[in-house]
Amino acid sequence: MQIYLDYSATTPTRPEAIAAMQAVLAQQWGNPSSLHEWGQRAATVLETARIQVAGLINASSVESIIFTSGGTEADNLAIMGVARLYHAPQHMIISTVEHAAISESARLLERWGWEVTRLAVDAKGRVNPADLAAALRDNTVLVSVIYGQSEVGTVQAIAKLADIAHQHGVLFHTDAVQAVGRIPIDVDNLAVDLLSISSHKIYGPQGAGALYVRPGVELVPLFAGGGQEMGLRSGTQATAIIAGFGVAAELADQEISRETPRLINLRDRLFAQLADVPGLIPTGDLEHRLPHHVSFCLESANSKKLSGKTIVRQMNLAGIAISAGAACHSGKLSPSPILLAMGYSEPAALGGIRLTLGRETTTADVDWTAMVLKQILQRL
Questions:
Q1: What is the mean pLDDT of the segment spanning 243-268?
Q2: Domain of 160?
Q3: Locate the Aminotransferase class V domain: which residues (predicted)?
Q4: Residues 341, 242 within the same domain
């Protein structure tokens, strides 16, 4: 029995997206910047996909969608695109539980003289809005807080945090890669200035993403070139991949009202079945949580015998794909920085595991996974 429970890492490309990509590769392969018929066919594909992605996040301006190579580039365009507006270093704010695309960008800016405040989170992984208000300065130009944390599933109070930033005239960005397509999102109601999306998290192809840029927000592009994507992302667009992204976005929008409750039921069922396992501690906020996300840490983890990586390997031998939070560098495990930021001990932070559900996950999958995980933990 093969069960895939790593949908936060990537999702399988849905057949409708593959069909759209194949059609473009066969029939609409022109350069979308060309003025002739072949180019205009490709340009129509791009603009259709832009409408589809805008619809998923209820963006009123279609031109607010800037296609990128994925979520990482979208994050970098947001952070560096704002930073490059300034000749002198300024101040920005992120949280301690950001994706590496944000945290590493911030680290680079620090090497260039910028000041970066990293907001602490509570034991559930949430930012306190009062902490954001207290951290804002006269020279703060950007706040970036992740929408749904990929390792522990916690969802932040993005609308409230964005409002606080705007009260001080500061731009607000959120990495919504894990949230888009799983939580209904309306960028106008959220009032965010910048929002990152990834195709392969919503059953589209790998290699495509988008940055939502609120009308009126200025960015300096990362690349010099032909000025594609409203001048913000030069380079000939990957039309076929973007077409698949657009189809996946449209279908996610159509399905979210029934798929999200289904995932929540499966998620809660898996949590309930594992609630009595000794030493298996749920991580993240169980109330403000991504609908597909289940995560734990092992109270007695250690780098020699029992770690999240050990559990991943054992589950893989049983035909079940999950993931771990601790990273392996040169053969040595290092604790998850996300769990450390949430106050977990180093041993516990070596034992983080994540099980993320998706369109193909069934009740039988959840029940079987719970049984297998219990048996593995008993054996170890």
A1: 98
A2: 15-252
A3: 3-367
A4: no
Residue 247 and residue 304 in one domain = no
Residues 27 and 120 in one domain: yes
CB within 8 A of 179, min separation 6: which ones? 147, 148, 155, 185, 290
Residues with a catalytic annotation lie at: 328
Question: What is the number of structural domains in the chain?
Answer: 2
* Cα dist from 182 to 46, 245, 318, 372, whole Å: 24, 15, 28, 27
Question: pLDDT for 9-31, tens place per residue?
Answer: 999 999 999 999 999 999 989 99
Coil, strand or helix: which one is 177? Answer: coil
Last residue in a domain, options 252, 273, 294: 252
Q: Which of 252, 273, 289 is the last residue of a domain?
A: 252
Q: Do 162 and 285 belong to one domain?
A: no
**Cα-based torsion angle of the residue sequence 287, 145, 352, 295 in order, rounded to the nearest 10 degrees:** 30
| Token reading at 82 | 């704002």
Using one digit for the tens of pLDDT, what is the confidence trace for 216-250? 999 999 999 999 999 999 999 999 999 999 999 99
Contact indicator for 376, 311 with CB cutoff of 8 Å = yes
Inter-residue contact 145 to 190 (CB < 8 Å) = no
Contact predicate 127/98, CB 8 Å = no
Residues 45, 193, single domain; the answer is yes
Q: Which two tokens stand for residue 371?
A: 């049984």
Q: Tokens for 48?
A: 């259709």
CA gap 102, 115 in Å, rounded: 14
What H or E segment, with its residue span, contains residue 143? strand 140-144
Q: How far apart are CA 28 and CA 273, in angstroms?
A: 49
Q: Are 270 and 363 spatial neighbours (Cβ–Cβ below 8 Å)?
A: no
pLDDT recorded at residue 331: 46
